[in-house]
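Example complex used in Figure S2.
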Amino acid sequence: MQIASHSGTKAILEKYDIHARKSLGQNFLIDSHVLKKIIRAPNITSDDSVLEIGPGIGGLTQALSECAGQVLAVELDGRLVNILGEIFKDCSNVEVIHSDILDFEIPTHINKVVANLPYYVTTPVIMYLLENFCFESITVMVQKEVAQRMASNNKKKDKSYGALSLAVQYHANASIAAFVPPNSFMPRPQVGSAVVHLEVLKNPPVDTDKGSLFANIKAGFGQRRKTLVNSLYGAELYPFTKEELAAIIVGCGFSENVRGEELNLSDWAVLTEALK
Ligand code: SAM
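Predicted assembly (276 residues):
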C-alpha cells in the first residue's frame, strides 16, 4: 500500500487513531506526483544514506527506502515513532529515531537530506543543516514564500530577495523543484508549498569574513526602504561618519543611494572588504 496517497494516509490515521498535531506542523503528503518530484530532485540511488526529518506516518520514508541505500528518519512525535517502528519493521534499510532534529547528532555518513519540513521551524532547521554539516544536497518541502526567499538571487528584482536568500547562497545553489498546492496534504495547510533543492557548495562562493559579511547584510536589510548608507550608519557597526560610509560605498562602485536589496552576494563581499 502506498502511504502517500489519500486512501493510504486515511487508512493509517484511522488504524492507529491518530489526529494530526498542528503544533508540530503535521500535514501529511498524499500526492504521489509530488513524492516523485521530491525523490527525483536529489537523484537518490542505492549509494545514498539519507536523513529524513519528520517522517510523520512514513509516506516519504517509504518512497525513500525504495531507492536509497539507507534512510535515517528522525521524528519528534513519540506516537508516530512507535507506529513507524511497526510499519517499517521488515524494512532493513530504514532506521527511525525519536528526537528533535535540532538535538540530534547527525552521523557523518549521511550524504543527503530530504524532508517535508514542519513549517513552524523551517528556517532554523535549514540554517542549522547548512552551517553545521557537509551534505551533498538538501531537498525540502517548505512554505511557498520561504522557498521563493531561499531561491531568489534578485536577478528579477523580486520582493522575496533578502537576508535568507544570501545566507542560503553562501552555502548552496538553490532551485525550486516543484510548487505544491494545499490539497496535496492531509490535513490541508492554509498556505501553498514548494520543494526547494539545495546543491551544497564545497567552499563559500565569496572570500571574506563570514561574521562581518552577515552583520552587514543584516544591517542592510533591517529597514528595506532605507538607503544602504543610512542602514549601515543606523546599525552603528562602524566608527565612520555618514559621509565616510557614503564614500566607501561609492568607492565600491555602487551609487550613493543604493539600497541593500540591490546588492548581490559578491557585492556584499566587496563592501565587507572595503569596510574592514
Ligand atoms: N514526512 C511526512 C510526510 O511528508 O507526510 C510528514 C511531514 S510533516 C509536514 C512534518 C513532520 O515533522 C511531522 O511528523 C512532525 O511531527 C515532525 N516534526 C516536527 N518538529 C520536528 C522536529 N523538531 N524534529 C523532528 N521532527 C519534527
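The two ends are 60 Å apart (CA to CA). The chain has eleven helices and nine strands.
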